[in-house]
């Protein structure tokens, strides 16, 4: 790939919370490139720094040291985020939650309606369109969160433990939706996970331990509909 394919580049990136003897180094000197079309899993146990690294990639945290450049991104709207925790707005129904980034961006109403309908269809949530978040399951809510990202059409999708609170079957459907969203938009996809079965469905893998990003692993492209069980 050429340099034009580079979306995000991290060089020697560190993130420290606090100061003095109580300081906690969440990320130590990470080097990472994310390019167009990447399907990357960052794998490690809880507390290994995965979420902190994802927040750095997203621009939600600023590095304590090192540099992050985003040559292939043109602002926050090029980044779509899916979190492990519930991220839907309780007072908005599924359609309104999915449409929110487009409404905030001032997209025309007809375009918004079309993109929301297509996104809900891709993740299999069309039948949930009029429901409020407290009327759907956790797995359904995660698929709606993916639909919201898909409607946004970002160049980079970052998903932080998106299956962490779900059973295997539901988690597989959410991962199906993420992969479909990335394929549909042409986005790169970065997923943090502690589950090797989730990581196995992505073609690139980086382990993370004690805040340190390990050497890359690669694999043949897996079946995008493979099971997590």
UniProtKB/TrEMBL annotation:
Keyword Nucleotide-binding: yes
Any single GO BP term: transmembrane transport
Pfam families for the chain: ABC_tran
Ranges of residues in domain ABC transporter: 8-229
Gene Ontology, cellular component aspect: plasma membrane
Highest rank taxon of the organism: Bacteria
Ranges in coiled-coil conformation: none
Protein name: ABC transporter ATP-binding protein
Organism of origin: Streptomyces coelicolor (strain ATCC BAA-471 / A3(2) / M145)
